[in-house]
Structure formats: C-alpha cells, structure tokens
Design goal:
Blueprint: E1 2-3, H1 15-19, H2 22-46, H3 58-73, H4 84-118, E2 131-135, H5 139-146, E3 150-154, H6 157-165, E4 171-172, H7 176-184, E5 191-192, H8 214-226, H9 229-238
Parallel strand pairs: 2-3, 2-4
Antiparallel strand pairs: 1-5
Length: 243
C-alpha cells in the first residue's frame, strides 16, 4: 500500500529511475547494436572511396563511422557519405533515425506519465531503497528482510498507516485483506494498493482436536462460497471492484 500519487510533494517524476528502467535500457541496447552494424557497413562502403569521409584503416575509421551513425540516429549528422553505397546506407539510416527518435520520445513520455499517475512504487521490485512499514514479528517483516528491504517495524498496523501518511515510510506491506479494508474505508482517497500478492498465506479457524464444530464450520464456509455470499461480502468490505 502506498500514498496516492497526488498526495506526494514532488511534482517531478524520478528521472534517474526512468533512465535506468528495463524498457529504456532495452531500447538503448538495440540502438547500440544498430549503431555498430551501420558503422561497419559505412566503413566498408566508404574506406576505398577517394573522397570518402571514413579513413581507410579500421582504426580510427570505425570510430568515426560509429560517431556518424550515432549522430545520424539522433538526427544530428553534419557530413554525408560520398560513395553510392554509402549514400544509400545514409538515406536508410536517416529514416531509421527519425523513427528511433519518435519511438524513444514516445517511450520516455509514456514512462514519465505512468510515474506521475502511479508514483514510483508499483511492485516488489521497486521497494529496495525505500522504507517499508509493517508490524514487528510478522511474516511481512520477515519477507522484507529476506529481500534486503529496509523495514520500519511498529507494534500496531495503525502505526504503519500513520508512518505512511506522515511520510516516515514509503509503503506498507501487510496482509492483503487488512490493507484492502483500510484502503476502501478510512484510507479511501489517501492510499492505494499496488502490485500483486507477494506470498500467499492461509488464515485458519483453530479448534480443539476432535471438535464437533469443525464439520459444521467447514460446511457453512463452503455454502457461503457457493451461494455468492462470500463474494458479496468481499466486494462490500474490500471495495474489490475498484481494487
């Protein structure tokens, strides 16, 4: 559970997180591969041309070819190939550069917009480096420590809510039904549930051995599931449709 994005002080998204995001790193990786391929094609086509812009030797010729490829991909080329094949490569590469610039801009804009709308915590992968509040001795606290996440342990879950609202914590990790109930009622409009269940755990009703109530309770629970009562109660108290 995190604060609503609009309740955060900073109006500026986390630029560093954007540039180190997986999707953007993949785009940059593809761009580097394309630059190296285009540079080699350019070097091979231009190295023997008498007026070619690329030196004949592999070094430093390939460096200049890589520079030209990178500059052209960013639509900043200041020199054009002289050979027929080189010019053909240049034309194709310029079109690729325009498409790449448009794709890069769209990806960056989308990432920035998502950050502003959702905040910078959307899953367990975003928690390292953040302060996470939960109750002391809980399975949630153990889970956070196992994943090397900074934990603020409190005695009561209400104290974790307060730490989140007063910005002493960046998120709260706890039992899903408890957080869903708070987000749908007292915390409505202030917090939101993000990500998925980190680890499934079961609740149980404890009875003495050989209790005569075990079978009737199990039957009652089964009836609640089958006739839809369970789901209607879940929707009512946990605001399930919105979450």
């Amino acid at each position: 559970m995190v604060r609503n994005a609009e309740s955060n002080d900073s109006a500026f998204p986390n630029i560093l997180q954007l540039f180190f995001s997986t999707s953007l790193l993949q785009v940059i990786g593809v761009a580097l591969v394309l630059i190296v391929v285009a540079a080699h094609i350019l070097w091979l086509s231009e190295r023997n041309h008498k007026d070619g812009m690329i030196p004949q030797s592999y070094f430093p010729g390939i460096f200049k070819a890589c520079w030209w490829s990178a500059a052209t991909l960013a639509t900043q080329a200041d020199e054009m190939p002289k050979g027929v094949l080189g010019r053909l490569v240049g034309i194709i590469w310029m079109f690729i550069g325009v498409l790449f610039a448009a794709y890069f801009t769209a990806s960056a804009t989308t990432s920035l917009t998502v950050q502003q709308l959702q905040g910078d915590i959307r899953s367990i992968d975003d928690l390292p480096g953040k302060v996470v509040a939960t109750t002391a001795g809980s399975t949630a606290a153990t889970y956070m420590r196992e994943h090397k996440i900074s934990v603020l342990e409190v005695n009561k879950i209400d104290q974790a809510y307060n730490a989140l609202q007063t910005k002493k914590a960046d998120a709260v990790v706890f039992d899903a039904p408890v957080l869903l109930f708070y987000a749908a009622n007292e915390g409505k409009g202030k917090v939101q549930i993000v990500g998925s269940i980190l680890r499934e755990e079961n609740y149980g009703i404890i009875l003495p051995n050989n209790s005569p109530y075990r079978k009737p309770i199990n039957q009652a629970l089964l009836n609640l599931k089958e006739n839809g009562t369970y789901q209607s109660l879940y929707d009512k108290w946990f605001d399930a449709e919105k979450s």
